[in-house]
Design a protein that fits this description.
FANCE protein, 191 residues, 10 helices, FANCE, Fanconi_anaemia_gr_E_prot_C, Serine Threonine Protein Phosphatase 5, Tetratricopeptide repeat, mainly alpha
């Protein structure tokens, strides 16, 4: 079925009417599968609004690992609309003050399992736009674990950030792991 082209307030109103931000997670999985079947694909803006409406509240309120249903819905949505998803969700997790351990684990899992290479690069560039913290080091490690080819300017920025912020991480095991991973995965470029 075709989704009628809706302007942004209409789409937000529809999401609110359907209570998508609070619908049961098994229903969310079915809704995401239905979205994938739509032709033509959603516009970038519509996908961004849906990512926000469907997932933002759920992800930011996680206090334990996400359910199997939520992970299935996230993976499903990311398979087609990972860029809008990253712009909304990853950005929100990075801005979230405090520990945000469950949110960080979720981003790591998505990086490791679901995101396309160009979106893995997008996540890394988003991380490098904010001050590096212990909370974000596992995300960098997950990106490096993918062993994707990074554009030279992004790799340069990563190395520069790690060098500049080294004094803040003198006792951090995660920081040492990230530096080791950079030197191992990108040995020829870093040298």
């Amino acid at each position: 079925p075709n989704m009628p082209s809706l302007c942004h307030p209409q789409l937000e109103g529809l999401c609110s009417f359907l209570q998508l931000s609070t619908c049961p997670e098994p229903l969310l999985v079915h809704f995401c599968r239905w979205l994938l079947a739509l032709t033509p694909d959603l516009s970038y803006t519509s996908a961004t609004i849906l990512a926000e409406q469907l997932f933002l509240r759920r992800v930011l309120s996680l206090t334990q690992l996400p359910s199997r249903h939520l992970m299935a819905a996230l993976a499903s949505f990311c398979s087609k609309y990972s860029q809008p998803f990253c712009r909304v969700l990853v950005a929100a997790v990075l801005r979230e003050p405090g520990e945000g351990a469950e949110q960080t684990k979720l981003v790591c899992e998505l990086v490791e399992e679901c995101l396309e290479p160009h979106c893995v690069q997008l996540v890394l560039s988003q991380v490098l736009e904010v001050p590096l913290s212990e909370k974000l080091l596992p995300v960098v490690q997950a990106v490096l674990g993918r062993q994707e080819v990074l554009p030279p300017e992004l790799l340069d920025l990563l190395v520069l950030t790690l060098c500049r912020q080294a004094p803040a991480f003198t006792t951090s095991l995660d920081y040492a792991k990230v530096v080791t991973a950079v030197l191992t995965v990108y040995q020829s470029q870093v040298a």
